[in-house]
# Entry
Amino acid sequence: MHDLSVLCGMNEATPRIRHGSQADLSAIESLLQSAGLPADDIRGIPGLLTWVVEAGGTIQGAIALEPFGKEGLLRSLVVAPDARRHGLGRNLVMQLESDASSEGVRTLVLLTQTAAPFFRDLGYQAVGRDDVSSAVKSSAQFRSLCPASATCMSKILV
Ligand SMILES: CC(C)(COP(=O)(O)OP(=O)(O)OC[C@H]1O[C@@H](n2cnc3c(N)ncnc32)[C@H](O)[C@@H]1OP(=O)(O)O)[C@@H](O)C(=O)NCCC(=O)NCCS
# Structure
């Protein structure tokens, strides 16, 4: 998983990205709720993959992938307010992209209300919701959880 020691110096509090587990779901939900992001459905999605960044025994951030064959819905990216602007968000996205690509995912799609510039810097482009496959559009995020005003973005993985 991603080595963040170069960003933070190597000690017991060095942030480390790992796969999330069932035991992390409460912490993930709490981070999402604090950031005003949808958390209600996170336990009920078959095949949902999560990653967390942990430092000093605390979950400081998370991201999730809802897979739809060669497409994937990147969702639930959040970093705790006091841990932002240290590269954790970017590294969570890079870890998800790397793992998704290894699993055969070719295109990532996301919805965001406030972080479009952050994702643009990482190579995501705004697309219309109509440009997204019906499989991804069938997700709860597209159907009901994210407002229609959210920006839809996409990136083709190499
Ligand atoms: C978006 C979020 C995950 C970014 O996490 P982070 O750990 O602060 O991001 P990073 O430190 O990796 O930032 C990487 C770059 O993006 C920039 N950036 C961070 N958040 C940004 C934002 N909301 N808008 C524009 N740029 C942003 C940083 O300045 C940094 O640029 P730099 O390397 O030139 O300094 C975090 O702000 C967050 O949790 N926001 C609330 C939840 C949210 O909106 N999630 C997205 C839902 S899809």
Remarks:
- Residues 88-102 form the longest helix (15 residues).
